[in-house]
């Protein structure tokens, strides 16, 4: 059965760091590189064009799209299919509950859902450390993520982690344990 990991949390909660720790732990874990239409940071994305996005939408291959920071970020069916080839387990980064719901509803796989959290002060500190030039926008996104999470009190998580208090490799090991032992949802 195909499987993947959904990492949800505000900017700078540690999604990249936890993903790196997972890929060090086991080579089957791979970062799902979302399609990005726009400008700015390119690392960790597949850069696309508005025409590519229009074609994906016309085929029904957009699983989830969000627009933030003046860009469009897309989880697409062909991208997920490719990421799961050869038994790989993609790690998908999301900051919106709508994305969590769309991916689990529209892309059949065994999804392990992980909530990564950090304080707003931590986001303010980590954002410039990782090279962001738009920390104010990241802090606004932190507020939006907190409100989004509060609006979904019944959200189900296999794991919740405070990344202010838990080391990345410990978190990766806990996620790996869940991936290896949790039966698929019925």
Write up what this structure looks like:
With 186 residues, the chain is α/β, with parallel strands linked by helices. The chain has one domain: Rossmann fold (3-Layer(aba) Sandwich). Helices cover 42% and strands 26% of the residues. The mean pLDDT is 94.
Write the topology of this structure:
Elements: E1 3-8, H1 15-25, E2 29-31, E3 34-37, E4 45-48, H2 50-59, E5 62-68, E6 71-76, H3 77-83, E7 89-94, H4 97-106, E8 110-117, H5 120-129, H6 135-150, E9 159-162, H7 168-181
Parallel strand pairs: 1-7, 1-8, 2-7, 3-4, 8-9
Antiparallel strand pairs: 3-6, 5-6
Helix pairs in contact: 1-7, 5-6
Keywords: Kinase, Transferase
Region (Disordered): 160-186
GO molecular function: kinase activity
Question: Could you name the CATH class?
Answer: Alpha Beta
Mean model confidence by pLDDT = 94
Anisotropy-based shape: globular
- With strands numbered from the N-terminus, the spatial order across the biggest sheet is 2-7-1-8-9
In percent, how much strand structure appears in the residues?
25-35%
- First-last Cα distance: 13 Å
- SSE order, one letter for each helix or strand: EHEEEHEEHEHEHHEH
Question: Structurally, how many domains make up the residues?
Answer: 1
Q: Structural class, please? A: alpha/beta
Specify the number of helices.
Answer: 7
Spatial extent as radius of gyration: 16 Å
Could you name the ranges where pLDDT drops below 50 across 5 or more consecutive residues? Answer: none
CATH topology: Rossmann fold
The CATH architecture would be: 3-Layer(aba) Sandwich
Largest sheet: 5 strands, parallel
The number of distinct β-strands equals 9
Estimate the helix proportion, in percent: 40-55%
